[in-house]
Amino acid sequence: MAWVALIVAGVFETFGVAMMNQYSVSRSWKPLALLILGFCISLFLLDYAMHTISMGTAYAIWTGIGVVGGTIVGMLFYGESKDWKRVLCIFIILCASIGLKIVS
Fold this sequence. Notes:
With 104 residues, the protein is mostly helical. It is 86% helix and 0% strand. The model has no long low-confidence stretch (mean pLDDT 94).
């Protein structure tokens, strides 16, 4: 269950980052409220996961999901570069995250 919570925490971190970008564009209260909500849920779930998963592994996976998720959201919805080097870096982060899960 801790691993599921950690993955969902990473998804909410990605959501928070997307709302941060929305807020920087519109400066309205709705993206700001969703940003705060997304990060609060993310941190709550990260805390829950860290009761079972070691801190280093949990934090690395959480940030990896956030980095990959934020980059993919940027590519798909905000017109960021889809250069093969960026995709390769995402692949490397995913492999490292899977490796951490395997050795944990």
